Amino acid sequence: MFTGIVESIGKVKDLNKKNNSILLKISSSISKDLIVNQSISHNGVCLTILDSNHNSYKVEMVNETLRKSTFKNVSIGDLINLERSLLVNSRFDGHIVQGHVDEVAKCVKVSKAKDNWIFTFKISNRNRNLIVEKGSITINGVSLTCYDIKDCIFSISIISHTFQNTTFHLVHEGDKVNIEYDILGKYIEKVFSKDKLLK
């Protein structure tokens, strides 16, 4: 489990595409602290460490991950938001993040406010009920708050610290991002959907 608080930005150093998966070699400032079998969030996608050394580590993405995330278009040199899994004795600074991407959304607008940046995204119609005003959402592994929701469109505000210390400074209008909806919202939506079917 994660909280959506990015620790480091990793860089794709190498990749090996197989039939149904991609093996990535990533360098980052936390590489030296990683061990095999650890779970790390990569732009919101939970992946298992297969091999690691002082400078880099390797992870593999299977077909399901590639199908539901932006990693199907990953390239050498890409930058990735990284977060290690939550420690039991840590502060819970974000919200509950599983590292299971629900869909890819499109950035439809980026604007600079006085002290922050405003990003607007469009999601699929089938998931519009999973976003609520002032509710939590994970975008490329970052815990954020939705607002100004209109049907399938919503905005988030990014402070300077987050803009500079995550890959949000690389997100532009037209770009695709990984979305994970709040797990509590998904459970509630499922319960109410079943209730409607029973009536």
How does this model look, in words?
There is one protein chain. With 199 residues, the protein is mainly beta. It folds into 2 domains: 8-84, Beta Barrel (Elongation Factor Tu (Ef-tu), domain 3); 103-198, Elongation Factor Tu (Ef-tu), domain 3, CATH 2.40.30. The protein has 3 helices and 14 strands. The protein has helices at residues 63-68, 160-165, 183-198; strands spanning 8-17, 21-27, 39-42, 45-48, 51-52, 56-62, 79-84, 103-112, 116-122, 136-139, 142-145, 147-150, 153-159, 176-181. The strands form 2 sheets. Strands 4-3-7-1-2-6-5 form a 7-stranded antiparallel beta sheet. The radius of gyration is 17 Å and the shape is globular. 32% of the residues are buried.
Strand adjacency order, main sheet:
4-3-7-1-2-6-5
Spans with pLDDT under 50 lasting ≥5 residues? none
Q: Helical residue percent?
A: 10-25%
Q: State the domain count.
A: 2
Please name the CATH topology of the largest domain.
Answer: Elongation Factor Tu (Ef-tu), domain 3
- The percentage of residues in β strands lies in 35-45%
Question: What's the count of strands?
Answer: 14
Q: Tell me about the biggest sheet?
A: 7 strands, antiparallel
The best one-word shape is globular
Order of helix and strand elements from N to C terminus: EEEEEEHEEEEEEEHEH
Q: Supply the number of helical segments.
A: 3
CATH class of the largest domain: Mainly Beta
Structural class: mainly beta
CATH architecture name of the largest domain: Beta Barrel
How widely separated are the two ends? Answer: 35 Å
Compute the CA-based radius of gyration: 17 Å
Mean pLDDT: 93
